[in-house]
Amino acid sequence: MITPEEILEIYWGYSRFRPLQKEIISAVLADEDVLALLPTGGGKSLCYQVPALMRDGLCLVISPLIALMQDQVSRLKQLGIAAECIYSGMHYKQVKEILELARDGELKLLYISPERLLTYLFDDYLHYLDLNLIAIDEAHCVSQWGHDFRPDYLAISAIRKLFTRTPFLALTASATADIQEDIALQLKLNNTRVFKQSFARSNIFYSVQYSENKNANIKAALTGDCSIIYCRSRKQTETTGHFLEQMGVEAAIYHAGMPKDKREESQQKWMDNTAPVMVATTAFGMG
User: Fold this and answer.
1) Beta carbons within 10 angstroms of residue 78's beta carbon
2) pLDDT (tens digit, 9 = 90+) per residue, 244-271?
3) Which of 159, 185, 186, 273 is most buried, by the most CB atoms less than 10 A from its CB?
């Protein structure tokens, strides 16, 4: 049988795992329910992608981060891994085609937003999916004590009734002891294995500065490297983006009030670095 290290080498070109990745993967492969607390950038996605490729069937990934889902699916396809994602705003026909691929065993990973769990179309196909793992990203969203509670996450526990032998992997970047217990309770995890990595990030720092001329200060702070500017409103996003364009900065604009094709175009420009600056509301990433 192929090993996790061989999968890692074949698809990602790495010879060894980051801290706790191997332990988490081993627990999942032993059909244990796992709660993994890894910092942002700690390699959470490999914890379900590697075991998904080692087993027959499909890994279902539930995530609220649309931009992240799209980015991961794009990268997986580049690696030759069959993956798709379903999220709000997609056409019925497109969603049905993806679910048919999943039902027919043509996919290894299917990313889905929690809201999709509540649709009749998804429910029609759910019973026919051969799931080898159910991964819940941003798992703190399931807890009413968490900092980003989303009621749709409560529907995830219903899947447990259909897939009693399929391991659950709940992933989050942060959760207090109370929230950890609530995650396990709400998801109906069994004999939960908890893995927690240190959240100390020596390469990240915060700097807070007062400004009376935000546009000028933003322009001065930009170095030409890939950047994200988050704004508090759609109007401010548009205003800041247009200001930067007038100043000769290639900037993309992203907010929930834009048509879906325009949002995707902005995201692609930013990913391709044709517009190295993204000006967005929190809709960029969430939704």
Assistant:
1) 8
2) 999 999 999 999 899 888 988 998 899 8
3) 159
Task: Provide the edge-to-edge strand list for the sheet that holds 277-280.
Answer: 227-230, 277-280, 251-254
Nearest by Cα to 85 from 103, 59, 101, 109? 109
The answer to which of 16-20, 22-26, 238-242, 269-273 has the lowest mean pLDDT is 269-273
pTM: 0.78
The C-alpha atoms of residue 94 and residue 71 are separated, in whole angstroms, by 18
d(C-alpha 52, C-alpha 2), whole Å:
12
Distance of alpha carbon 161 from the chain centroid = 24
Residue type, 38: L
Computed over every residue of the chain, the mean pLDDT equals 91
Question: Maximum distance among all alpha carbons in the chain?
Answer: 62
Q: Which amino acid is at 2?
A: I
- Asked if 133 contacts 52 with a C-beta cutoff of 8 angstroms, the reply is yes
Return the closest-CA partner of residue 144 out of 118, 121, 176.
Answer: 176
Q: For the segment 34-46, what is each residue's pLDDT rounded down to a tens digit?
A: 999 998 777 999 9
Residues with Cβ within 8 Å of 195's Cβ and at least 6 positions away in sequence, in order, are 20, 23, 24, 27, 34, 35, 36, 37, 38
Note the pLDDT tens digit of each residue in 176-194: 899 999 999 999 999 999 9
